[in-house]
Amino acid sequence: MADFEAYEYSSRVEAMRSREYPMLKDSVYLDHAGATLYSKSLIDRFSADLLGNLLGNPHSASTPSQYTTSRIEDVRLRLLNHFNADPEDFDLVFVANATAGIKLVSEAFRSLPNGFHFAYHEACHTSIVGVREEALSNVCVDDNQVQNWISGEGIFSKSESPRPDVLFAYTAQSHMDGRRYPLSWPALLRKSAPSTRGPYVLLDVASLAATSSLDLGHSDSAPDFTVLSLYKLFGFPDLGALIVRKQAQSVFDYRRYFGGGTVDMVVCDKERWHSPKAAFLHERLEDGTLPFHNILALDAAFDVHADLFGSMASVASHTSFLTRRLFDGLTALRHDNGQPVAAIYSRQCDSLGTGPVVSFNLRNSTGAWISLHEFEKLAALKNFHIRTGGVCSPGGIASALDLKPWEMRRNFSSGFRCGTDQDVVFGKPTGVIRASLGAMSTVSDVDSFLTFLEEFYQEKAPVVREDLAQRTIASCDELQVKGIKVYPIKSCGAYCVPNDTYWEVRPEGLAWDREWCLIHQGTGQALSQKRYPRMALFRPRLDFDRGLLRVSYRGKKPGNLPDEVCVPLSADPTQFDSRAFLRGKSSRVCGDKVTTLAYASSHLNKFFSEILEVPCVLARFPAGGEGLGVRHSKAKLQEHQQIKTATPKVCPGAFPELPSPPDSDSEQPPGKILLSNESPILLINTASVEALNRDIAAGGGRPVPEEAFRANVIRLLFLVGRVFSDFIRAIVQGTTGYPAQLRPIRIFSHPRKNISAQDAKPHTMIVANQEHIWFNGWLWLSGSAQILRMAFRFGI
């Protein structure tokens, strides 16, 4: 497709997107490899079909049931025709998704009398890798090993008698990086063993078939088993298919399980006998009632897809053009010092072509990896929806990131798990950013994503504001504490410490800060404002005279609830649920598994559950715990986050010279925390808030109050930038055994106490307004841009 035609095609898609894909308003969707999007016309047409026709269970003999059965067979044929698969040579089995098709094949081979050997390509999806657990032996192969196999070099022993069958599985197009693999491999492998039965071939086309045509017109060269997920092609319905070459269908003869609708007769009682249906393979493999509504939706899906996008060849050309544009844009992104912004793992020069998938990681100007977890949060706030992590491609990830098996096992031993926010372990990333495009993607999607990367991740020469550069610490009179706050219940409102109050600093942080939480009754997960913003309107109050924590609600609540509830500040054991499954309840807080004490009072828990409209209980995580009753700070600065300064600039005469810390961070034991996200105390500077609000206002956003940051200590400080960062270094030394003495400011701490924190880290900003529950994305975005460019540090 020439560039002019490509732009014209993209313009047509752009013109109909607001009508056909209203869910995309103000959003850029870049996860089509996971699932593409359904159109309004598809849903409208399918709804009309459902309302205009009476359907029934295909296993019944009624008129609606027979009508449904007839249409299912029409759709089956339509799907085979889509892949140019002759029904004389192929049968199609409806399954839940590609994984279900793979599992069906795996169960068949497991049942073979002599078992089977299994070979799989390193680029395979996790669902294919799992087949190896059913095989007598298995081997993971790369391109060269497959070519050697084709050349006659066997990968399994030929001396076995009887010889087990061999199954080889690979993907037509990697869902990780878009690389395509030869569709000629099945035929070549069969030719490599002319005197014996060549290996059976299982081909995963879920990624390829989403945006490209697949021709199964030549049965002799086609794979024996082809699996795909139709929601990746149409967005809806949620359905998959297994296409079986009839020459290989005898593999299923030894399958043991049978479900309803797959047999002609079953004898129970004293004899065990059954007769499977024999007319068509799909009749004995489609266990139980088919998802007939989903199957019939494919009629509308085919029609609407053709109306909106034309042929699959047009879709393939369109997505290929966009992929090249994205790849070239990523390649061109450079930092001010010439270093690339992106480490790209996808290729664009392969003779087989490349699918619409680009995988990469981001690096700063010094080469340090950018956190995938932080990238995904920032992208979501800018309405870019994209996949990060291992993307269910263990072999592809290991190859792309040069992760050896021993490194992956070491990462696991150190705590890394799929789905966690540990994305850089021992200096190497554990996953990738995957941007994938679909039929309804446009040039503007690609360009806006590249602009986003340029704005937030391309480091340019810093601009030093002259007014800030000239600011110095003139006297200690400028260093005033405006206020101190604690948040007794995690993610709920603050309690403001009264003026002229001495406040204890414990090893875990400020006394009474984040010692309680609300946990979901079903999952044990601690609730947060991100999902339940009304938590901000709970107002805890510490009543020391009566020894109570009182909680009220500032918003509208059900009329049957009291104005406030309260619990003792003392850890009274009679307050907690004594049942084994609640006392010492296993919970998760910020990814950590902890043991909390859940309160037994139904009156108390009803107050929180009905306001938040979620079943939850109040739980306590008291200070001084052991084992799962204690958490540790995670705050560790990456190289790109380090504040580089030669000599701390501190208030003259205010602090003694800091002693030298230990040589290595590894020598420092982690500090204790309660239910705070990562670090025990967050301090912010009012001047920084004002500077940030100026940035937000310049971009057209709403200013944010200091409360939005949920800080513990607010300093009325006329300093920002590097000077403020250096001042913070003077307050917190962050090395155990080398605490800096905090000045005895009466509102903050008793003079004999001191504060010690581990490796100060910029705090993730809370973007919910704490009074009216509206979210301000400008706060995060403006702050992130500043932090990534190292213009200032907001809090510790």
UniProtKB/TrEMBL annotation:
Coiled coil spans: none
Protein name according to UniProt: Molybdenum cofactor sulfurase
PANTHER family: MOLYBDENUM COFACTOR SULFURASE, MOLYBDOPTERIN COFACTOR SULFURASE MOSC
Family indicated by similarity: Belongs to the class-V pyridoxal-phosphate-dependent aminotransferase family. MOCOS subfamily.
SUPFAM superfamilies assigned: MOSC N-terminal domain-like, PLP-dependent transferases
Active site: 392
Enzyme class: transferase
PTM sites of type N6-(pyridoxal phosphate)lysine: 232
Keyword line: Molybdenum cofactor biosynthesis, Pyridoxal phosphate, Transferase
Domain Aminotransferase class V: 28-449
Region (Disordered): 650-670
Enzyme Commission number, as recorded: 2.8.1.9
Cofactors named for this entry: pyridoxal 5'-phosphate
One Gene Ontology molecular-function label: pyridoxal phosphate binding
Any one biological process term the GO annotation gives: Mo-molybdopterin cofactor biosynthetic process
Reported function: Sulfurates the molybdenum cofactor. Sulfation of molybdenum is essential for xanthine dehydrogenase (XDH) and aldehyde oxidase (ADO) enzymes in which molybdenum cofactor is liganded by 1 oxygen and 1 sulfur atom in active form.
Database matches in InterPro entries: Aminotrans_V_dom (IPR000192), MoCo_sulfurase (IPR028886), MOCOS_middle (IPR005303), PyrdxlP-dep_Trfase (IPR015424), PyrdxlP-dep_Trfase_major (IPR015421), PyrdxlP-dep_Trfase_small (IPR015422)
Boundaries of every Molybdenum cofactor sulfurase middle domain copy: 480-612
Reactions mediated catalytically: Mo-molybdopterin + L-cysteine + AH2 = thio-Mo-molybdopterin + L-alanine + A + H2O
